[in-house]
Specification:
single chain, 142 residues, alpha+beta, Alpha-Beta Plaits, 35% helix, 22% strand, globular
Length: 142
């Protein structure tokens, strides 16, 4: 986490953003996640976004990102959801059968700022480990 210098400002703004798929459907399989990561790289190049971590569970994603101050978190979410949904439907047409309303992402989202001194490493580890199952993490009823 370092200070980024732009033409008229210097900043170190980091967000933890979470948003689920429409109807909380568990559709984020490996091929879809691979496509999502490719689209995310293209968005980083097109906009002044730095996606530091992208963690996917089956029905939601976590993003750790750094944004230029001209973008607010809501703008980032709107841009990210719109463009990734369009490209995912284009790359995987069978998704439209599962999501009959034509929307990929749910309407809501969660966002929090992440400080560099306090909880950055904890949040980064949490996002990095999304989608990984630990057998001993929770007792299961038989």
């Amino acid at each position: 986490m370092s200070v980024v210098k732009s033409f008229h400002c210097a900043y170190s703004i980091h967000y933890h953003v979470v948003f689920p798929l429409k109807y909380r459907k568990a559709l984020l399989s490996d091929p879809i996640v691979a496509t999502l990561k490719q689209i995310t790289k293209e968005l980083e190049e097109r906009f002044q976004f730095e996606i530091e971590r992208l963690g996917c569970d089956l029905d939601h994603i976590h993003i750790l990102c750094s944004l230029h101050p001209k973008y607010g978190p809501s703008q980032f979410v709107r841009i990210y959801k719109n463009l990734t949904a369009r490209e995912l439907f284009r790359a995987h047409p069978d998704l439209k059968k599962e999501l009959w309303g034509g929307e990929f992402w749910s309407d809501g989202f969660y966002v929090a700022t992440v400080g560099e001194r306090g909880d950055w490493s904890v949040v980064e580890k949490y996002v990095r480990e999304q989608g990984k199952t630990v057998e001993d993490a929770q007792l299961r009823l038989l």
